[in-house]
């Protein structure tokens, strides 16, 4: 009996097409994909839940930024979309797990914070930090850099935006210092006792 290759070929073609379609997503019945400008995305998807352009000045209603990251939370049945813009054009689309119902920003405990959270998820779960610092640092290239294509650059260094957020949970708990690189929590450090709120 000869094996039939037809089902295998159809499965491979379907996987290839579904992967290409997953690169973008739909808003208002139209596909949002890389290369789109901010105006199109905002017109079809509405205002993002968060625009992250750290260290950039806001002039009027315009963000003066070379790079921006937009977060869209479409609720618990859809994935959070993370859109990376460079010079006003969409260059990359990421996901940040399933969304959630929008409530007032929470105030988590220090035990809830974990590496791998996006800045958006940290803000929603824990609220704004009590103190922040932003700077650019050089660090070695990791395999996951450049959309997962950074392995061939091992030994090289890359400039990244690093943020330090400090959360003060009061004198009964310990301070938490959260390190964020390129919009993702990379480490959570435990500090000394917190301070009374004034």
UniProtKB/TrEMBL annotation:
Superkingdom of origin organism: Bacteria
The entry's keywords: Signal
InterPro entries given in the database record: DUF2845
UniProt signal peptide: 1-23
Name this protein carries in UniProt: DUF2845 domain-containing protein
Native source organism of the sequence: Abyssibacter profundi
Taxonomic lineage from the root: Bacteria, Pseudomonadati, Pseudomonadota, Gammaproteobacteria, Chromatiales
């Amino acid at each position: 009996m000869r094996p039939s290759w037809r089902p295998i070929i159809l499965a491979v073609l379907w996987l290839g097409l579904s992967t290409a379609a997953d690169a973008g997503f739909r808003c208002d019945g139209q596909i949002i994909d890389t290369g789109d400008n901010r105006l199109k995305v905002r017109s079809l998807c509405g205002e993002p839940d968060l625009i992250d352009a750290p260290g950039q000045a806001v002039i009027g209603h315009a963000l003066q930024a070379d790079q921006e990251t937009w977060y869209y939370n479409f609720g618990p049945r859809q994935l959070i979309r993370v859109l990376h813009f460079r010079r006003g054009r969409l260059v990359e689309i990421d996901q940040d797990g399933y969304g959630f119902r929008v409530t007032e920003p929470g105030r988590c405990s220090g035990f809830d914070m974990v590496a791998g959270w996006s800045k958006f998820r940290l803000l929603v779960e824990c609220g704004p930090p009590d103190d922040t610092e932003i700077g650019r640092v050089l660090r070695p290239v990791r395999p996951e850099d450049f959309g997962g294509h950074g392995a061939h650059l091992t030994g090289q260094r890359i400039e990244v935006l690093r943020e330090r957020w400090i959360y003060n949970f009061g004198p009964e708990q310990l301070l938490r210092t959260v390190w964020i690189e390129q919009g993702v929590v990379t480490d959570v450090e435990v500090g000394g006792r917190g301070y009374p709120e004034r």
